[in-house]
Amino acid sequence: MKRQAGAAKAPRIVDAKAQSEGFRANRAARRNVLVEDYVELIADLLAEGMEARQVDIAARLGVSQPTVAKMLARLANEGLVTQKPYRGVFLTEAGASLAMDVRRRHRIVESFLAALGISTENVRIDAEGIEHYASEETLAAFERALDAGLQSFMAAGVIQGG
């Protein structure tokens, strides 16, 4: 098959160093996903006036209590939570700081996806993943787009295109 005149060339593969950096960043994010999910959930439970008990964490994350116990031990070793017998789990200052950052990232991603017109259900589901992988540069771009009226722009496009 001949290439038509003026047709774009297939993209070249990026150099090994640049490509490996992307994979490294992805692996680092994957290692942090569970930690971030746990501290965010614990913060949410505590903010709602509930106790962050192992049974509640397990139910909300859809995992077993032994899985939660193992992660809580890891979080305690990393200085992110403390556990009090018969009282549940509490965030340390470092844990609360991490939870605030994760919430901020989550809020930005949710707002951006909602402005694009994504359904509420998919906004909730997709934000749970994207928040962990988006760089600060990407999150800043999301915020700039939102501040510049992305939601209005998308609504106008939908109306004109519909």
Q: What's the total number of strands? A: 2
User: Which structural class best describes the helix and strand composition?
Assistant: mainly alpha
Shape, principal axes of CA atoms:
globular
Helix share bin: over 70%
Name the beta content range: under 5%
Distance between the termini: 37 Å
CATH H level, superfamily name of the largest domain: Winged helix-like DNA-binding domain superfamily/Winged helix DNA-binding domain
CATH class of the largest domain: Mainly Alpha
The run of helices and strands is HHHEEHHHH
Main sheet summary: 2 strands, antiparallel
Mean pLDDT across the residues is 87
Q: How many alpha or pi helices?
A: 7
The CATH topology of the largest domain corresponds to Arc Repressor Mutant, subunit A
Going by CATH, the architecture of the largest domain would be Orthogonal Bundle
Tell me the strand order in the biggest sheet: 1-2
Query: How large, in whole angstroms, is the Cα Rg?
Result: 21 Å
Question: How many domains, as an integer?
Answer: 2
Q: Uncertain segments of ≥5 residues (pLDDT<50)?
A: none
